[in-house]
Design goal:
The protein contains twelve helices and 21 strands. The protein is α/β, with parallel strands linked by helices.
């Protein structure tokens, strides 16, 4: 089925005109395609079918419960990084025994809650965390994973690179044997898994191969030391196309997994986020003004950096197009697409060729399904953007736009009496 494409001169999400959704829910809004989510999940599952791999969707990429539910129904587990994400995953129907807890700063309370829910595994990222976990797991016992930092350059944006020695993530590979030994010596803790995640939006498989080779060597060394290692968590990180990137074919990724870990007899876990949801979502916005500045044209839209922060935060590129298809012979001029927020950083793109636009014309930001709605804030007292899930010719509001009343009620006046 088609996911997002132009038909009869209008952008469609599956079988619904995006303009129709805009009319009913107002703008801006995020819109996800069930078919796109399903197709991406199935493509990854099929590519990895020859191995014993569990796909634990990285909920941080898009934590709407309707999205998590879509993957849960396809058999996915979840990779979570906070108590909030754990609660969302459980509420959306992910079985606890398919949930993995990652993150450098899990609190004692979060660890205790995760243990009480009997999740599949906690991936420990530091010795102090191991000590806390050792204390709370002493009586009930816990099989754990240890995330290592393989010191590999993922060759992605520095803000989303996680596998270099100077990043905050994981246990240095050189100390891994000692830390596994320390964990084994603790009553109640049994380290049985090695985890790795070197960064996000990777479009080159070589760093992943290097990381997986390092992990495989570690598994062999740990077994020689008498550890019973039964699983490996290979993390996420597979990139998508935003502009002209060429993400590696999934078959190539699967081959690397097979070549590096295939002979170890381990159960494998992957934690993809972006590759499952990034291109399954769009952000739809409305033109407020097409303003000719002194030297530049500014298209001011009703979405802003608080709704989609990636361009401001990572200089990320999102394709931006009119929702009504531009006719081939229409003349365009370059424009900066900006939001209404009072800072120059509220710029989505510079110098994009766009046709003349009028107030209320709809524009679409492509590839906004990952790290879009989840990173939104209410800066400038703007309301969080609603989320829509499309399936065939139907759509559901899976997070509604709050009211200004709700926004105001979040604060309370101090009562000094
Ligand atoms: N596993 C762990 C331990 C992670 O830290 C992450 C992402 C993932 C899995 C999923 O990675 P993915 O498959 O989505 O690349 N906000 C940034 C991306 C931050 C990624 C953080 N960790 C962005 O908008 O580009």
């Amino acid at each position: 089925m088609t996911e997002f494409d132009y038909r009869d001169g209008m952008l469609h999400a599956e079988n619904i005109a995006v303009s129709e959704i805009a009319e009913q829910v107002g703008t801006p809004f995020y819109c996800y395609s069930t078919a796109a989510l399903t197709n991406r999940y199935n493509a990854l599952r099929d590519a990895l079918a020859a191995q014993d791999v569990t796909i634990c969707y990285a909920v941080k990429a898009n934590s709407n419960q309707a999205v998590i539910r879509t993957f849960a129904e396809l058999g996915a587990g979840a990779d979570i990084v906070s108590e909030g994400e754990l609660r969302r995953a459980l509420a959306a129907g992910v079985p606890a025994d398919r949930i993995i807890f990652s993150g450098v700063g899990k609190t004692r309370d979060e660890l205790a809650y995760a243990l009480s829910e009997n999740i599949h595994k906690i991936n420990v990222e530091s010795v102090p965390e191991l000590e806390v976990l050792g204390e709370i797991a002493a009586e009930r016992g816990a099989e754990i994973g240890i995330r290592v930092n393989p010191d590999v350059d993922a060759k992605t944006h520095e803000k989303i690179s996680t596998g270099k020695a100077d990043n905050k993530f994981g246990i240095d590979i050189g100390r891994a044997l000692d830390v596994f030994a320390k964990a084994r010596a603790m009553p109640g803790v049994k380290p049985v898994s090695v985890a790795v995640h070197i960064g996000s939006q990777l479009t080159d498989l070589a760093p992943l191969r290097a990381a997986y080779e390092t992990v495989a060597e570690l598994v062999t060394a740990l077994r020689a030391d008498g550890h019973e290692i039964d699983s490996i968590d290979l993390g996420g990180g597979l990139g998508i196309r935003y502009k002209d990137e060429t993400p590696p074919p999934l078959a190539d990724y699967a081959r690397i997994v097979q070549e590096t870990t295939g002979n170890l007899g381990c159960q494998l876990f992957v934690e993809p986020g972006r590759m499952l949801v990034g291109n399954a979502g769009i952000l739809v916005t409305r033109v407020i003004y097409d303003k000719q500045g002194q030297s530049r044209r500014f298209v001011i839209v009703d979405a802003a950096m608080n709704d989609l922060v990636r361009p401001a935060m990572y200089d990320a590129y999102h394709e931006i197009q009119p929702v009504r298809e531009t006719r081939a012979n229409t003349s365009t001029t370059d424009a900066d697409i900006v939001g209404p927020i009072c800072e120059t950083g509220d710029t989505f793109a510079r110098g994009r060729a766009l046709p003349p636009l009028k107030t209320d014309d709809l524009l679409v930001f492509q590839s906004a399904g990952a790290y879009g709605a989840v990173m939104a804030s209410t800066y400038n007292s703007r309301l969080l953007v609603p989320e829509i899930l499309v399936k065939g010719d139907k759509f559901a509001v899976v997070r509604r736009r709050p009211s200004y009343d709700e926004l105001l009620k979040q604060d309370q006046l101090a009562n000094w009496q």
